[in-house]
């Protein structure tokens, strides 16, 4: 099992335990609704900012053409490596 599978399984288990406790009237997470809303909104904003920063956003026509040349070169290099 790879690390991401373990992480997803652990997150699912925690979510299920949290849901089970909540259905029996226990509040396992000591947060009110407004704090959860702010946390979720902040997390989504931070994730979007990191994603937009990390990815190569080629906006101009020249940048898009350069990306296409790069893809072709990478594909040729991969093909040459696979032939060896």
From TrEMBL:
It is found in: Membrane. The keyword Lyase does not apply. It comes from the Bacteria. The keyword Membrane applies. Keywords: Membrane, Signal, Transmembrane, Transmembrane helix. InterPro entries: Holin. Coiled coil: none annotated. It holds the Pfam family Holin_SPP1. Residues 1-22 form the signal peptide. GO terms for cellular component: membrane. This is Phage holin.
């Amino acid at each position: 099992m790879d690390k991401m599978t373990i992480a997803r399984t652990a997150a699912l288990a925690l979510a299920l335990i949290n849901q089970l406790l909540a259905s029996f009237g226990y509040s396992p997470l000591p947060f009110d609704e407004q704090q959860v809303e702010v946390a979720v909104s902040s997390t989504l904003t931070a994730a979007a900012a990191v994603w937009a920063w990390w990815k190569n956003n080629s906006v101009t026509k020249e940048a898009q053409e350069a990306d296409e040349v790069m893809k072709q070169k990478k594909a040729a290099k991969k093909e040459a490596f696979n032939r060896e």
